[in-house]
Specification:
It is built from two helices and five strands, in the order αβββαββ. The longest helix is centred in the middle third of the chain and has 18 residues. The protein is α+β, with helices and mostly antiparallel strands. β1 and β2 form a beta hairpin. The structure holds adenosine monophosphate.
Length: 114
């Protein structure tokens, strides 16, 4: 099976500005940031999207959720606030079919998004 773009980044076959990695996940700066801080948190396991996750992935998803706070603190946006986004499928605007959590901050944001 062909590796996804984000697997290639996790395996360092494609360069990225990585800010965190461990055995379960990697986090790197979005190549086209929509705010001063825009990190993508990606499991090494190539789940297509959040809707593809099963009970088998419970520990992995929990790990990712806890890493969101760690990364936000490390990036200095935990106190000011930030947004997490999980785009899913075509209507959700997902362009890379490998589960990823956007961590976006460093500026004030509106709700709802466009
Ligand atoms: P999504 O639209 O939710 O699938 O988000 C995919 C994100 O990946 C977009 O925000 C892109 O800017 C970002 N992206 C695409 N290619 C790269 C890359 N090579 N390095 C870092 N971010 C990327």
């Amino acid at each position: 099976m062909e590796k996804t773009l984000f697997q290639k980044i996790a395996d360092k076959e494609i360069p990225s500005d990585m800010v965190y990695e461990d055995e379960h996940c990697v986090a790197f700066r979005d190549i086209s940031p929509s705010a001063p801080v825009h990190i993508l948190l990606v499991p090494r396991k190539p789940l297509r999207d959040i809707a593809s996750a099963t009970a088998e992935d419970a520990a992995l998803l929990s790990h990712l959720m806890l890493k969101v706070g760690d990364i936000a603190r490390a990036q200095g946006i935990a106190e000011s606030g930030f947004r997490t986004v999980l785009n899913t499928g075509e209507d959700g605007g997902q362009t890379v079919p490998h589960l990823h959590i956007h961590i976006i901050g460093g500026r004030s944001m509106q709700w709802p998004p466009g």
